[in-house]
Amino acid sequence: MEERQPEVLASITPSGPRRFFATGVMATLGVLLELLAFLRPPESAGLQIMLVVFGLIALAGCVRMFRATGRGLVLTDEALMDTDGTLVARLDQIESVERGIFAFKPSNGFVLRLKSAQPRVWAPGLWWRLGRRVGVGGVISGSEGRAMADLIAARRGAAGAS
Questions:
Q1: pLDDT digits (tens, 9 = 90+) for 88-124
Q2: 3-state class of 63 per DSSP?
Q3: Sequence-ordered list of residues with C-beta below 8 angstroms from that of 72, at least 6 positions apart, any chain
Q4: How many Å apart are CA 143 and CA 109, to the nearest integer?
Q5: pTM confidence score
Q6: Contact of 114 with 94, CB cutoff 8 Å
Q7: Keyword annotations for this protein (predicted)?
Q8: What is the DSSP-derived secondary structure letter of residue 138?
Q9: Element (H, E) at 129
Q10: Pairing of strands 87-90, 127-136
Q11: Phi/psi class of residue 85: alpha, beta or left (left: φ > 0; alpha: ψ in -120 to 50)?
Q12: Rounded to an integer, what distance in angstroms lies between the CA atom of residue 40 and that of residue 43?
């Protein structure tokens, strides 16, 4: 018997210019912190070490963000998934969609509140999951984020009505 592929309802793919701008800002921060630590070292060795560590963290974050934003998100009739196959959230587990102006959400994105806590995952610039909350956004376009949030809210409402 052939396995049925789920139908793709919506997808989000970060654009190249957004990816390069976001990672460029992170790389610039990392390089500036390293330069500050070595070209104008502070009097305190502890402060210099702190600058070096934060610079390395920013550079590592830049690499991780570039890798994460090379992927995208896909909404099927069953779940929201990363294009590498990572499950972000099953639609039957979504309790609410928050996308208001005062919602604590990523840039151009939305937050899903789940019925039960899930393991922590972070794809910088694309999505994160912490307990019962999933944040989608960062380097995505606002129109794609709004469209996906509206579709999830409509699907969740339709599932709740049946």
A1: 999 889 898 888 777 778 888 899 999 999 999 999 9
A2: helix
A3: 11, 12, 13, 14, 82, 83, 126
A4: 9
A5: 0.81
A6: yes
A7: Membrane, Transmembrane, Transmembrane helix
A8: S
A9: strand 127-136
A10: unpaired
A11: left
A12: 9
